[in-house]
Amino acid sequence: MRILYVVTGAGFGGAPAHVLRLMEADVKDGHAVGIVTSPEPRIISEAERLGTCVFPNPYFVRRVQPHNDIRALWLVLQVIRRFNPDLVSAHSTKAGYAARLACAILRKRVVFTAHGWAFGGGRGRFQSRFIAALERLAAKATARIICVSDHDRDLALQHRIAPAEKLVVIHNGVDPKPFLHADPGNVRTEFTLGQSPVITMVGRLVSPKDPLTLLKACQFLKGGFVLLLVGDGELRSQMEHFVSNSGLERSTIFTGERKDVPEILAASDIFVLSSHKEGLPYTIIEAMIAGLPVVATRVGGIPELVEDNVTGFLVPPGDPNTLAKALQNLLDSSNVRHEMGRAGRAKALMEFNLDDMLRKTRQVYDQVLKSR
Q: Where are the chain's structural domains?
């Protein structure tokens, strides 16, 4: 089978990581694989390491820019003609539009994976309706739509994006091995982590993740703690300014992007994610496998991961006071942390494993090609 992946990938987030997992499995199974993506260095290098055909698309930008969007579509059309895939697998909103329009023109079969719908929150009513209308139109050219959470499937049905038979839920999955046996020693030495509990956020420092709410919550915390902010993004300078003016300098560490996330989680005691918009975050699954209790916002598919008062705490988005109370509960009791961490690990290993995700995705691909 010849499979072409199309993903925006402006910044190394959940969708590009998801695509890399799929491509690695495809290559191992002997399929010919290509990828059209933004020229983000980490995505390009990882895809080349796998031995896939890489087609950088410099016109994949997050903001709506008609002249760039047309160029992006034209490049996708050219790549599809050149690579001649049996199936196109599209991920992320803008890449999804371009890939599906190109496939409609070239009469190619395409599967779209929604990593959280763009109309699903944080936008004005008119804008959300317009985006939903575009998704309904794009869905007509889509053989199957994969939703990474039940929440996203319900949202698609609510907005009449596609009929139920075209929608399938496949939860994200993680290979547990790197997170079960990680050694925290080097991380603890590098950042001089003492005996205080370590609170860790792994994610891009961008508006949808709302990391400023986390910093505001940390102002209310009592007792010693260390906050590790793992990732980078457009909000970093604003966050550093906030930290320097709020008395959090001694307790906050900006690590930047890291490749040793399993070791960082092994050195941590609590995982936190204060997003106001999410699909089904890989970082939470990884933290659960690492045995950490999770404090996260009740948005997107997060409640399908975090069981409130069992594997962690769910809080409203944009509410630093409630977030602080949940974090304080875990800071005050190592027994609660360990108990919730054990429960989270058991849930993640049972329900969110990589093999299941790969198997179910391949079944969708096969069904689409057989129905041709």
A: 2-173+353-370, 177-351
